[in-house]
Amino acid sequence: MKFERASLQRYATLRWIVAAVFVALALRLCYIQLIDTKYKDLATSNIIRRVVEYPSRGEVLDRRGEYLVQSRECYDVMVIAGEIPHEGFDTMRMAAILDITPERLRSQIDKARRYPRAPFLVTNYVPQQAKLAFDECYFKGFYTVFRTARQYPRKIGGNLLGYVGEVSERDIKRWPYYSAGDYIGIGGVESAYEVELRGRKGVKVETTDTHGAVKGSYMDGAFDTLPVNGRRLISTIDARLQAFAEELMEGKIGAVVAIEPSSGEILVMASSPTYDPDELVGRQRGNHYMTLQENVRQPLFNRAVKSKYPPGSTFKLVQGLIGMQEGVLHSSDLHPCHEGFVVGKRKVKCHSHRSPVDLRDAVATSCNAYFCYVFKDIITNPKYGGVRRGLEVWREYVESFGFGRTLDSDFIGEGVGNVPSTEDYDRMYNGRWNWGTPISLSIGQGEMGCTPLQMANLAAIVANRGYYYIPHIVKHIEGCDSLDARFYQRQYTKVDSRYFEPIVEGMWRGVNVWGTSRGAELPGLDVCGKTGTAQNPHGKDHSTFLSFAPKDNPRIAISVYVENGGFGATIALPIASLIEELYLTDTIRRPEMLRYVKEHTVYYPYYDKLNAKKNRK
After folding, report:
1. Residue 10: is its pLDDT beyond 90?
2. Dist CA 379 CA 387 (whole Å)
3. Among 377, 376, 375, 350, which residue's Cα sits nearest to residue 365?
4. pLDDT range class, residue 252, cuts 50, 70, 90
5. Nearest to 450 by CA among 574, 311, 339
6. What is the spatial distance between Cα 326 and Cα 303, in angstroms, rounded to a whole number?
7. Measuring CA to CA, how many Å separate 297 from each of 43, 135, 187, 274, 291?
């Protein structure tokens, strides 16, 4: 009896609960249908549209606050094909407003119809004035999205700065942040600092009427997210110096890199030939890119950080330093030079100069024979029991100077160059080789290869007497207190600082007393320099020059490399010297040298043959 009574009570309670739920639903339905007009308004407006709001991309300035890269306002025109009216619209009028052909417009709409509910790009880089005219027409199914496009006030640093292009399918798969139609930094600073420059996208949910006109934000913007603009970057580049370097390298193939030794900040990074970065902005970007891509001189290739050049005689500095650290060389040691060094039936030739010479004068005169003796003594050092271990020890020293590896800079795509190993020679000579086999390494030839960035870093190492700061291209990021900690840490070589003084003295003598670098003298500035002439299998030798100034408390370290330029003093030296003069004195007082550099012609038979072959095809 008690059980039946309890069951009846539970049944009654359940009935009341069900009734209450039905009453609540009925009241809510009445409210929606009779009182609340929101859903009626949405039904009238018909469409809710989610529009991605793109942030302004961060701008890039030089070390003095001058703009290298700016952002200007432009728009993308998007379409949702399923919303285009069946009776058609005025394609001629739209095409005229957007400055595209009617055929192009129809083609894009046909592509969009494959995915009728998805937004599809019709055209981009629409200026503000055209956007306003477009909005007045209320083309149903079409809408505009705010973007920014790059512009370059100085029109310099194409390879240095990089460019912005549409993301690829690979980019989208790799980074979930991106969607089809997004832009991404490609190469240079744009790529290296993409996360900082791009900012963060926002979303705006809009309601539109049946004509496609925007009526307002959905739910008063409750579901909107605001975009966050990209950060401004202060680069380490000196814009005036960069422009001057590119001017001096015009008509030549090679690279210039200048570094501030006390910080590792890159003052100049010029690759030649270069291009106007504005060419890779706008609707003609694809055409311009293909033209640059087809150029046999490869203006899109950043030689400053990617080329693998033989360093030539500039590398003798490293040999001298290793020899002293290993105890097989003293700065006062004399070695003879009879216009070369004989190895079996081979001879490493040298130019005529007084003989014998000590280390300082060997650096000043760039004596090949002297450093052949030094290199031989390093790799045949008795304490290592054989040339194989001797070469391995030598290689470890060389790598401590930043060769044969990346410098861990903030520049994506940095090359490693090449420092040959015992395994390389075993492979090339089937294990049968001796100390004379790699003798060309003593003068920076043979299998030795390095980038202009690595060579400029060598100049900074010598200027600092044994250490360097990792070279970097950005000085400050807006909203950040400091850069990555690695850029503030000294990187030491395996050579004690005391051994650098004879090398520095030799470089100073070569410029200011007598030697191969006399043309680089700047009275009162104690310039130190070392010429290099690198053999080239495709024509005339390469010209290279490595320098820093002043001798004490140096402010600039520089490397110039000119393909097919001949002797180091012929063209690389005057280019480096003029750049040093402008940076240190704020003026050019040697107009004859400036005129010589600009008028000096370098011939490139290798590239000319490639071009002729391409034209025949």
Report:
1. no
2. 5
3. 350
4. very high
5. 311
6. 34
7. 61, 45, 18, 10, 11
Query: How many Cβ atoms from other residues are within 10 Å of residue 485's Cβ?
Result: 7
DSSP string, 30-94: HIIIII--HHHHHHHH-EEEEEEEPPPPPPEE-TTS-EEEEEEEEEEEEEEGGGS-TT---HHHH
Of the candidates 467, 455, 463, 465, the residue with the CA atom closest to the CA atom of residue 551 = 463
The H-or-E segment that residue 547 falls in is strand 542-549
567, 527 in Cβ contact below 8 A? Answer: no
Read off the tokens for 57.
């991309």
**How far is the CA of 69 from the CAs of 148, 181, 255, 258, 406, in angstroms?**
12, 22, 22, 21, 27
Cβ-contact 200, 130 below 8 angstroms: no
Distance CA 530, CA 576 (A): 11
What are the backbone angles phi and psi of residue 537, rounded to the nearest 5°? -70, -10
Here the tokens at position 279 are 């060419």
Comparing 126-130, 208-212, 236-240, 283-287, the range with the smallest average pLDDT is 208-212
The first and second tokens of residue 265, run together, are 């900040």
Q: How far apart are CA 328 and CA 377, in angstroms?
A: 6
Contact present, 604 and 566 (Cβ < 8 Å): no
Quickly count: other Cβ atoms within 10 Å of residue 482's Cβ.
Answer: 9
| 3 state SS of 478 | coil
What pairing do the DSSP bridges indicate for beta strands 67-80 and 119-126?
antiparallel
Q: Sort 217 into a burial class: Cβ within 10 Å, 0-12 / 13-18 / 19+.
A: middle
- The encoded tokens of residue 35 equal 């009182």
User: Does the predicted TM-score (pTM) go above 0.70?
Assistant: yes
**Residue recorded with tokens 């400091």:** 482
Structure tokens at 313: 């005689």
Token digits for 302?
A: 């950043």
Phi–psi pair at 442, nearest 5 degrees: -60, -25
pLDDT tens-digit readout, 141-173: 898 888 999 999 999 999 999 999 989 999 999
Q: Which residue's entry shows tokens 């400029």?
A: 456
Burial group, residue 35, by CB count within 10 angstroms (0-12, 13-18, 19+): exposed
Tokens of 541: 């030798």
CA 9 distance to own-chain centroid = 80
Using one digit for the tens of pLDDT, what is the confidence trace for 14-58? Answer: 777 777 777 777 776 676 566 655 555 545 445 676 778 899 999
Domains, the chain, ordered by start: 48-234 (3.90.1310.10), 239-610 (3.40.710.10)
What does the alpha-carbon distance between residue 298 and residue 576 come to, in Å, rounded to a whole number? 23
Q: List all residues 6 or more positions away from 349 whose beta carbon is below 8 Å from its beta carbon.
A: 339, 340, 368
